[in-house]
């Protein structure tokens, strides 16, 4: 197994130490999950005044797509590097966004089966009229047991598979919620890399963030004006963002009878988008005091809350987050919160030995294999094409072009209108020749089915269904076949990438 970088950026800005971030509140300790080496890092957060490198993701089935794990390992590798450079403790923290309500994204995962084909596994659909229950409240249900059995059957018998199935089964239980399973599985998986997990839906976390959420609701109109101005300024610098800043909206959600419902401005008060229920600011303040878990931030407010709760100096983000994080500036300023440095996560490709064998066999590159349009297959087929046919077709093309050019020049001397007629005849002649070549390729393809099938399986492994591998396949797929060394190798690759791309504070300007 090896990894190939697919870098999102070429260079990462230096991260400066920040004074006055304060110490972590002891009341937050119950919101943390840690195992293995991460338990020591958790103690350093509370007792040694460590700084934090944060990242996070909403829940996914069987820990979600690979990029979730890559984000976490990126935070771990970056924390190690910054600790050595800053000469003070730095701890990686994974923010578990379990109040997310996007069940469509959370309900499915994919892996490669024994035959190399893509397998899609999904929990049952949710009715379109059902409440948008956040993932920390939504039970997995009995269907998850069948998906675990299917995962087991689709992977080769051996200790690696058994260990992965046991690990997933400990957390992805029918009686567990989507968020609970995701949290427990990630904390156990990432602990040996020192990565601490933080449950943002825990009562202690919600209590700590409630004052900032209330302030964001109270000052929604002022914040909208500032965000709109920031959005326009970014657009003038050709920086677009995936997050829409809309008038009449707040940066917060309320859990009510409609599930997680967006809070909107409504005259002098507020109203929830789906349920249409009216509220006053005092109602939200009462919720904050009685049941703060019902309040949650949107994507723009969440990174600000990370700085409110944690001594974070950098946030490891994916490309979508990197597009909207610059928009968050006015929120930090308005709430008087330190703004952590956004850092791009590592992006890469896990290349299995069988894929490398195919590349060597056909003297191909990863780029050639991954590109759409079956470029590699066409090249392989042409390599098997009789030289007389290939050379004859190329010679005939040259002769056609040369001959028709002479005919066209002579015809134009007689009548300029004949130019189009000759051009059309040339096009038909070339099309007939192309058709002959394609037919020959088709016949060769039928003869070369084994080799083409090898290429197709290799492409499915690196570009499943034409999509980026890290956005389709999950980590358990690789762990079940290659064991825990898969994560070790990924971590080493990520560490090497940061060593190359991260600008040192001591580098000459």
Comma- or semicolon-separated keywords:
6-stranded mixed β-sheet, alpha/beta, 5-stranded antiparallel β-sheet, 51% helix, 509 residues, 20 helices
Terminal CA distance reads: 38 Å
Assembly context of the chains: single chain
The side-by-side strand order for the widest beta sheet comes to: 2-7-4-3-13-14
* Global morphology: globular
Radius of gyration: 28 Å
Please state the average pLDDT score. 93
Beta-strand level of the residues, as a percent range?
Answer: 5-15%
Biggest sheet record = 6 strands, mixed
Give the % helix: 40-55%
Helical segment tally? 20
Number of strands: 15
- Structural class computed from helices and strand pairing: alpha/beta
Unreliable residue stretches: none
Task: Give me a quick take on this structure.
The chain has 509 residues and is an alpha/beta fold. 51% of the residues lie in helices and 14% in strands. A hairpin with a 2-residue loop joins strand 9 (259-266) and strand 10.
Which secondary structure elements does this structure contain, and how are they paired or packed?
Blueprint: E1 2-5, E2 32-33, H1 37-47, E3 51-57, H2 66-86, E4 90-96, H3 103-106, E5 108-112, E6 118-122, H4 143-153, H5 159-171, H6 178-190, E7 196-199, H7 203-218, H8 220-236, E8 249-256, E9 259-266, E10 269-272, E11 278-279, H9 281-290, E12 295-297, H10 302-309, E13 312-317, H11 319-324, H12 329-335, E14 341-344, E15 348-351, H13 353-361, H14 366-370, H15 375-384, H16 387-414, H17 418-447, H18 449-462, H19 475-482, H20 485-501
Parallel strand pairs: 3-4, 3-13, 4-7, 13-14
Antiparallel strand pairs: 1-15, 2-7, 5-6, 8-9, 8-12, 9-10, 10-11
Helix pairs in contact: 2-20, 4-5, 5-6, 5-19, 7-9, 8-12, 16-17
């Amino acid at each position: 197994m090896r990894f190939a970088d697919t870098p999102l950026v070429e260079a990462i800005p230096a991260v400066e130490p920040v004074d006055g971030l304060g110490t972590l509140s002891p009341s937050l300790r119950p919101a943390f999950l840690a195992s293995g080496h991460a338990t020591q890092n958790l103690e350093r957060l509370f007792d040694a005044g460590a700084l934090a490198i944060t990242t996070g993701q909403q829940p996914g089935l069987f820990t979600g797509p690979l990029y979730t794990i890559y984000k976490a390992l990126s935070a771990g590798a970056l924390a190690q590097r910054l600790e050595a450079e800053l000469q003070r403790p730095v701890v990686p923290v994974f923010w578990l966004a379990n109040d997310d309500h996007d069940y469509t994204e959370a309900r499915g995962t994919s892996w490669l089966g024994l035959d190399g084909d893509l397998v899609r596994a999904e929990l049952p659909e949710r009715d379109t009229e059902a409440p948008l229950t956040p993932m920390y409240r939504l039970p997995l249900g009995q269907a998850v047991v069948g998906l675990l059995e299917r995962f087991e059957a689709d992977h080769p018998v051996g200790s690696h598979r058994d260990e992965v199935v046991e690990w997933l089964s400990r957390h992805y239980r029918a009686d567990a919620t989507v968020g609970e399973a995701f949290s427990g599985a990630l904390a156990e998986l990432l602990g040996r890399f020192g990565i601490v997990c933080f449950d943002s839906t825990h009562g202690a976390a919600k209590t700590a963030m409630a004052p900032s959420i209330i302030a964001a609701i109270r000052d929604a109109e002022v914040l909208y004006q500032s965000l709109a101005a920031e959005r326009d300024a970014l657009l003038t610098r050709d920086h677009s963002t995936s997050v829409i800043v809309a008038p009449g909206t707040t940066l917060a959600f309320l859990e009510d009878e409609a599930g997680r419902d967006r809070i909107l401005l409504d005259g002098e008060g507020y109203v929830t988008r789906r349920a249409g229920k009216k509220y006053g600011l005092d109602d939200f303040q009462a919720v904050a005091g009685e049941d703060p878990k019902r309040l949650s931030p949107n994507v723009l407010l969440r990174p600000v809350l990370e700085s409110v709760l944690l001594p974070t100096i950098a946030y490891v983000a994916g490309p979508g987050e990197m597009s909207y994080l610059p928009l968050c500036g006015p929120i930090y300023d308005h709430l008087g919160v330190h703004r952590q440095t956004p850092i791009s996560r590592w992006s890469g490709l896990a290349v299995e030995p069988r894929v490398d064998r195919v590349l060597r066999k056909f003297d191909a590159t990863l780029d050639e294999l991954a590109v759409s349009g079956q470029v590699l297959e066409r090249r392989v087929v042409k390599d098997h094409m009789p030289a007389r046919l290939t050379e004859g077709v190329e010679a005939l093309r040259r002769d056609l072009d040369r001959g028709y050019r002479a005919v066209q020049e002579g015809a134009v001397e007689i009548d300029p209108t004949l130019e189009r007629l000759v051009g059309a005849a040339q096009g038909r002649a070339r099309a007939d020749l192309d058709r002959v070549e394609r037919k020959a390729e088709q016949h060769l393809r039928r003869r070369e089915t084994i080799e083409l099938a090898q290429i197709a399986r290799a492409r499915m492994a690196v570009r499943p269904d034409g999509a980026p591998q890290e956005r389709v396949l999950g980590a358990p797929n690789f762990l079940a076949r290659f064991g825990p060394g898969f994560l070790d190798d990924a971590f080493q690759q990520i560490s090497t990438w940061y060593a190359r791309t991260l600008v040192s504070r001591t580098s000459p300007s």
